[in-house]
């Protein structure tokens, strides 16, 4: 029996990999902090280490990719080894479940590994998925991943609801998910690195693309404005609804339903349509549409009053996040030369990690001097400014912009 073509094989393995990836999503969104607080009663330093793990991994990817490019291994196997290492590190937390610092260290370094290798996966998508179908295929695996996160989140909540000591089984589940993710990645088509031997090879070499590629530079600035505005607003959602000093003080289960269930349902429902849209419209146009939906969600949530406004705001945010996941993961594939996608993505993830580290501090500092409503207006202004910035560029008359960013781009 002949081997399936690279597109089919990549999609099949990525679809299976989305299941353990969905399990790992619940570690970062729910169970990691829940165990840290309820089981170990950890302090702010330990919790901050855990919360910063993914952002730190994104930042380090800028320096790791140039080294991995020269490892002379295939792309898939390099990514797989990093993932399996991440799963093994998580296994340390499961093997020593009574040790709080092993718990924090094992899970944090495991998550660090998983985010560090994101640019390698993006390079695989660029090589193995055709441009005309890339968004749709990516969206299907993303929807499957989100659905698995919902299912495992419900199961994990039920399990520790029976007995908090069952958190040990969750730790083993996360470790197993990490290894399983690596094994599915290992089975991807063995594409060799296409290295330009004359290109710079220093740890900061990927940054040269910011200077060389004007469209890339424009979108990075826009992503930074959008990301800061969006992250600052979303950092405070639970604080706004749950903290008694702000006057709302909803019960815990209502907060969990509004902030955890509503946006994930929107993400599952709208992920696939956004994948189709991504394949058919220009990148700048899609980013602008998503920015306006993010803005509508933020303003509805913070300026509205009552359950209806909060649910509507989070639903809009979930809709935009569904499309945002597709564009965040794939947009460099529409810009970068074929051999440089991982480097482009490493710059993007570096800046994403940087704003991920800064946003919580900015959010809580800002709320100390202004109201939630005023801050939501400032966050929305930042996102709208990002949209205006890229719209001006997209309307440029130069042939290069039209060729790369119009509906027919086939890079």
UniProtKB/TrEMBL annotation:
Keyword flag tRNA-binding: no
Listed name of the protein: Putative MFS family arabinose efflux permease
A Gene Ontology molecular function term of the record: transmembrane transporter activity
Membrane-spanning parts: 21-43, 49-69, 102-125, 137-161, 167-186, 218-242, 254-272, 284-303, 309-332, 344-369, 375-394
Superkingdom, taxonomy of origin: Bacteria
Keywords tagged on the record: Membrane, Transmembrane, Transmembrane helix
InterPro entries: MFS, MFS_trans_sf
């Amino acid at each position: 029996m002949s081997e399936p073509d690279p597109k089919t094989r990549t999609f099949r393995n990525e679809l299976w990999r989305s299941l353990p990836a969905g399990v790992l999503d619940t570690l970062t969104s729910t169970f990691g902090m829940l165990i840290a607080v309820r089981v170990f009663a950890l302090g702010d330093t330990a919790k901050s280490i855990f919360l910063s793990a993914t952002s730190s991994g994104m930042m380090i990817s800028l320096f790791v990719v140039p080294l991995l490019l020269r490892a002379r291994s295939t792309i898939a196997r390099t990514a797989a080894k990093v993932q399996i290492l991440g799963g093994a590190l998580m296994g340390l937390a499961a093997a020593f479940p009574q040790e709080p610092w092993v718990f924090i260290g094992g899970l944090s370094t495991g998550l660090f590994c998983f985010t560090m290798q994101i640019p390698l996966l993006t390079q695989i998508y660029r090589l193995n998925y055709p441009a005309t179908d890339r968004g749709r295929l990516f969206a299907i695996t993303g929807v499957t991943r989100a659905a698995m996160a919902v299912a495992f989140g419900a199961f994990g909540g039920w399990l520790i609801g029976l007995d908090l000591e069952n958190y040990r089984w969750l730790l083993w589940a996360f470790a197993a998910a990490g290894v399983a993710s690596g094994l599915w990645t290992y089975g991807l088509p063995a594409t060799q690195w296409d290295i330009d031997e004359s290109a710079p090879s220093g740890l900061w070499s990927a940054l040269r693309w910011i200077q060389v590629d004007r469209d890339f530079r424009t979108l990075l600035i826009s992503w930074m404005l959008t990301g800061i505005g969006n992250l600052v607003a979303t950092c405070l959602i639970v604080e706004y609804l749950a903290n008694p000093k702000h006057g709302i003080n909803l019960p815990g289960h209502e907060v969990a339903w509004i902030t955890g269930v509503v946006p994930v349902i929107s993400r599952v429902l709208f992920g696939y349509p956004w994948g189709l849209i991504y394949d058919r419209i220009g990148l700048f146009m899609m980013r602008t549409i998503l920015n306006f939906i993010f803005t509508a969600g933020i303003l509805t949530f913070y300026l509205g009053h009552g359950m209806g406004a909060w649910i509507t705001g989070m639903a809009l945010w979930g809709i935009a996040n569904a499309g945002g996941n597709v564009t965040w993961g794939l947009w460099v594939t529409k810009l970068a030369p074929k051999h440089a996608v991982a480097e482009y993505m490493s710059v993007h993830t570096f800046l994403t990690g940087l704003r991920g580290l800064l946003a919580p501090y900015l959010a809580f500092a800002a709320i100390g001097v202004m109201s939630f409503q005023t801050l939501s207006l400032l966050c929305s202004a930042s996102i709208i400014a990002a949209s205006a910035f890229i719209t001006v560029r997209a309307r440029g008359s130069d042939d290069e912009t039209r060729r790369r960013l119009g509906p027919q781009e086939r890079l």
